[in-house]
């Protein structure tokens, strides 16, 4: 039931098509516009981190500002991200080796290449979810919960997260998997995911949701990185709240409570970025340089020169 959402156009010829689904919701959570299958449950991947963060804040996580944004992040592995992770672990009186996310290189290409050139091996702290994992450990310490099993689906922390997901999406979790970082991954529909972002970003956010949203919007580079599209969007559109996820997932909320959620079937980021920007511009009627830069930025090269780009394949 997914539909063509982006075309790969090289030298005027469509050489490929990305399929996907997307939805726009109003401030009350009702559907304003959609394409493809937006009702079936899917894994939101890292777009669920606002919900995970909310469960931790409700359980007493005292982080503020950039460290709270980092707790909800898929960070790029830049030096300030690593310093932030260490600060959270220090507050919990824990060492880096207590993290249970996998060994990895930084997500950002520049940071990864720098590490490789220096002969540095993969590290847990480099993994883009290490901010979330350090916050999970801190939450467990504060509540007297076992820190060795914090990734078990039956752990009190993960039960609290499931409760928050079901509350904020308005849907029951139908599927539980394992995310790339090892944490339980709980399903929802694109409609449910959009509702979450509309609530967090909009006028009906409660105090804890608003605290998380404000921390992220004030420190977007801590949620992503200095060279990430999610950072550019939040810096370029006032009041916008966004979180990208693996496999082509994007959740975006506006300060008026409208929101969008999308998933690209093949997981391509180049399509995710273009589709999100097109919906923001043509459906939600937001005209900002940051959006046009994303629309025009997915360039195809031939002999090192621009010969085409990724373009939207749907019409409002």
List keywords for this structure.
8-stranded antiparallel sheet, alpha+beta, Beta-lactamase, 316 residues, single chain
Notes on the structure:
- There is one protein chain.
- The protein has 316 residues and is of the alpha+beta class.
- It has a single domain, classed as 3-Layer(aba) Sandwich (Beta-lactamase).
- Helix content is 40%, strand content 20%.
- It contains 12 helices and 12 strands.
- The chain has helices spanning 49-58, 65-71, 79-91, 109-117, 130-143, 156-169, 190-201, 207-218, 220-223, 229-236, 269-283, 289-296, and strands spanning 3-10, 13-25, 31-35, 41-42, 176-178, 184-186, 188-189, 241-245, 249-253, 259-264, 299-302, 305-312.
- The strands form 3 sheets. Strands 1, 2, 3, 8, 9, 10, 11 and 12 form an 8-stranded antiparallel sheet that branches. A two-stranded antiparallel sheet has the order 4-7. The chain has a two-stranded antiparallel sheet with strand order 5-6.
- A hairpin with a 3-residue loop joins strand 8 (241-245) and strand 9 (249-253).
- Helix 1 (49-58) packs across helix 6 (156-169), helix 3 packs parallel to helix 5 (130-143) and helix 10 runs antiparallel to helix 12 (289-296).
- The longest helix is centred in the C-terminal third of the chain and has 15 residues, at 269-283.
- It is globular.
- 52% of the residues are buried.
């Amino acid at each position: 039931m997914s539909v063509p959402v982006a075309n790969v156009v090289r030298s005027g010829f469509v050489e490929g098509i990305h399929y996907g689904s997307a939805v726009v919701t109003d401030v009350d959570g009702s559907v304003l516009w959609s394409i493809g299958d937006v009702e079936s449950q899917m894994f939101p991947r890292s777009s669920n981190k606002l919900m995970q963060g909310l469960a931790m804040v409700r359980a007493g996580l005292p982080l503020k500002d950039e460290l709270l944004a980092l707790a909800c992040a898929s960070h790029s592995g830049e030096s300030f991200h690593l310093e932030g992770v260490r600060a959270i672990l220090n507050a919990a009186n824990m060492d880096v080796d207590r993290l249970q996310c996998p060994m990895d290189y930084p997500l950002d290409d520049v940071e990864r290449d720098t590490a490789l050139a220096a002969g540095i091996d993969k590290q847990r702290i480099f993994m883009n979810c290490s901010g979330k994992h350090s916050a999970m450990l801190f939450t467990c310490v504060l509540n007297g919960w076992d820190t060795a099993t914090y990734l078990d689906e039956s752990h009190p922390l993960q039960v609290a997260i499931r409760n928050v997901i079901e509350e904020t999406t308005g849907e029951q979790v139908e599927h539980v998997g394992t995310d790339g970082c090892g944490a339980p991954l709980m399903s929802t529909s694109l409609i449910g995911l959009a509702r979450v972002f509309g609530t967090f970003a909009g006028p009906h956010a409660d105090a804890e949701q608003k605290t998380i949203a404000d921390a992220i919007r004030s420190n977007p580079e801590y949620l992503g990185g200095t060279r990430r599209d999610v950072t550019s969007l939040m810096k370029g559109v006032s009041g916008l709240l966004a979180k990208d996820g693996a496999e082509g997932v994007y959740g975006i909320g506006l300060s008026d409570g409208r929101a969008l959620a999308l998933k690209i079937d093949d997981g391509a980021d180049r399509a995710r970025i273009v589709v999100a920007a097109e919906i923001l511009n043509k459906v939600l009627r937001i005209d900002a340089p940051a959006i046009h830069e994303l629309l025009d930025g997915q360039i195809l090269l031939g002999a090192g020169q621009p010969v085409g780009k990724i373009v939207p394949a749907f019409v409002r």
